[in-house]
Design goal:
The protein is 29% helix and 27% strand. By secondary structure, the protein is α+β, with helices and mostly antiparallel strands. Strand 5 and strand 6 form a beta hairpin. It has a 6-stranded antiparallel sheet with strand order 4-3-2-1-5-6, sandwiched between helices. The radius of gyration is 15 Å and the shape is globular. It contains 4 helices and 6 strands. The longest helix has 18 residues.
Length: 170
């Protein structure tokens, strides 16, 4: 695959956030929300990595739109264990955007070192208007940053609140 194809695919994934319904579904068939229109202000996605982790924790994917849309998905190996669409509370969204801004992803660089055994790679994607940014950083590097660690803790709390599940994100 070419870098431009990968960049376009990642940008498209960031935009796949808006349009979630207000009901949760425990059914693995839950479909991700349609793409965000370019006129919408903001979107954010977090991927915990580790779908194939040896201990079977799986990967959590959280996608947010400015309008309060939240899509959650848990994947273990090739199996979707949970997927659901929600409308996040306004205070949850306000805190999310505060933590995302504080984490400083605009200035953060993706990891370049090789991974270590059993270390997941976090993926943070953010979009404001037509601008998007993706940072892929090894979990151990990311959690050295207090503001990133606080964001990951908050995201884990949102999974617990909305999906009624306890994720392993750290």
């Amino acid at each position: 695959m070419t870098k431009s194809f990968l960049a376009a695919a990642l940008a498209a994934a960031v935009m796949a956030i808006a349009g979630c319904g207000t009901k949760a579904s425990n059914a693995p068939e839950a479909v991700p929300p349609p793409a965000v229109k370019a006129t919408q202000a903001r979107a954010f996605e977090f991927r915990s990595g580790g779908a194939f982790h040896i201990e079977g924790f799986g990967e959590w994917i959280l996608q947010f739109g400015r309008e309060g849309n939240l899509f959650l998905k848990h994947v273990v190996r090739d199996e979707v264990k949970y997927a659901g669409n929600f409308t996040a509370a306004k205070d949850d969204l306000a805190r999310l955007w505060e933590l995302v801004d504080a984490a400083g992803f605009d200035a953060m660089r993706s990891s370049t070192r090789p991974g270590v055994p059993d270390e997941a790679k976090y993926v943070f994607k953010s979009a404001k208007g037509k601008d998007s940014r993706t940072v892929e950083i090894w979990k151990n590097d990311a959690l050295r940053e207090d503001k990133v660690s606080a964001l990951v803790d908050f995201l884990a709390g949102l999974v617990t609140k909305y999906a009624k599940q306890t994720p392993v994100l750290k």
